């Protein structure tokens, strides 16, 4: 099989097969994995650190390590999850200062949301007003909730995978995501919410 | 089935549902269309869940083509692995090259014909709705950011024998990887073919007008219209505009930021006629815009807003030009304020 045909065939492999092909020493599979994931990794890494060069270094180290240690790596059916987990670990490791235990380090979070909270929402009941309300609520979420939301809705990681990437237990992931979507849902119902509050207060008195 | 008992939060946490909202395909589209038709009472909840999921957006942090290549090169400074493995270079006789090019052209022509005529199913197709942008990774590692109300198509699998090709309706920003065998990359927009090796550029093809803005690298435009082929070579910082019903082309040097800031979800206007802003609102957001005073249509606007803050934009225009802007659903009417009290 010549090299051109092989490159085309790589596109049709699922993650498990692609990973195995790379692990067996296939350089084209390795290059293909790089091309497919390097931008995703940079996008994620940049949410965990403002330092662009640091993120690039970590990505470089990661891929160096992957090729070097390919025979000793585990299997995976979800390459982006595997790479995200490794990248996060590597970034945290680099951010650590001496004498700080591992479980106390948190990333140097750098989530930027697309819109601002400055526009006057109240009169704007349109679809666009809802977009803005939601974007505003998103920007106000705690950073760890943003990370969990990012992994769930951008990269469709499962609860187990998110727990593994963020080094927390599954229950914590549930809590983070529930709280986040609750806040987002709420942002779409300001009128309803104030109505309920009004009724509630009338009720007490 | 479980979905009947789902509340909003359940949809928001369902992996299959999320996958459908973010990466719809023919199969899932069909499934959900049928399911919603069978359970119309669930439609509001489904729509709200879709809305929330698709509204979760964070700013994208991007690597340039150069940086992607740089990291790779650093990795292999001491090794033999190449990102784009190629067979050893051999001496090729000129006539072999000619035959290959001719064969390639015939192949391209046949391929293009096949696409146009039969709607071949081996094509990968991406589309965006009004007000939506999408980032796409192509088989060769190139990245495309598709702007609102646009469509991109390409063959499912690419080989290194023939040029890499995509077909674009609407607007997109391309970051094309340079292949070691100098394999060409061609964007087809109407009758225009935009050919590059590896570079970053913006293509806007709407209303029978194609506009290309070049950030870096080199681009060759071919206009295959009216049985002639007009060729234009572009350098970074240049804009070229070709209109279907007009001969020739316009070329000028521009601030590329103005034309590519949409991919950072910002709209930048630097002396843009209001009529053109109206077209953008129609093409990208699905509004119908009526400008009642022709004088207003020609006025030039300078300003910047986030891409999802149209109210903000209309507010600025109203203030700067002393205009009444009336908005009813998807219709916008602009009228100069009358001087009479």
Report on this model:
The complex is a heterodimer of chains A (205) and B (341). Chain A has 205 residues and is an all-alpha fold. Chain A has ten helices and no strands. In chain A, helix 6 packs antiparallel against helix 9. In chain B, 32% of the residues lie in helices and 32% in strands. The longest helix of chain B has 25 residues. Chain B has ten helices and 18 strands. With 341 residues, chain B is α+β, with helices and mostly antiparallel strands. In chain B, strands 1, 2, 3, 4, 5, 6, 7, 8, 9, 10, 11, 12 and 13 form a 13-stranded mixed sheet that branches. Chain B has a three-stranded mixed sheet with strand order 15-18-17. Chain B has a two-stranded antiparallel sheet with strand order 14-16.
List keywords for this structure.
heterodimer; A: 205 residues; mainly alpha; 68% helix; B: 341 residues; alpha+beta; 32% helix
Provide a concise account of the structure shown.
Chain A is mainly alpha-helical.
Helical stretch tally of chain A: 10
Q: What would you report as the Rg of chain A, rounded to the nearest angstrom?
A: 22 Å
Helix content of chain A: 55-70%
Rg of chain B, nearest Å = 23 Å
Overall helicity of chain B = 25-40%
Helices and strands of chain A, in N-to-C order?
Answer: HHHHHHHHHH
Secondary-structure-derived class of chain B: alpha+beta
Low-pLDDT residue spans of chain B: 78-93, 111-121
What is the average of the pLDDT values of chain B?
82
Number of strands of chain A: 0
Helix/strand order of chain B, N-terminal first: HHHHHHEEEEEEEEEEEEEHEHEHEHEE
Shape of chain B: globular
Q: Count the strands of chain B?
A: 18
> What is the average per-residue confidence, as pLDDT of chain A, rounded to a whole number?
83
What kind of sheet is the major sheet of chain A?
none
Distance between the termini of chain A: 82 Å
Span from first to last CA of chain B? 64 Å
Low-confidence stretches of chain A: none
The biggest beta sheet of chain B, please? 13 strands, mixed
What amount of the residues of chain A lies in strands? under 5%
Derived from helix and strand composition plus strand pairing, the structural class of chain A reads: mainly alpha
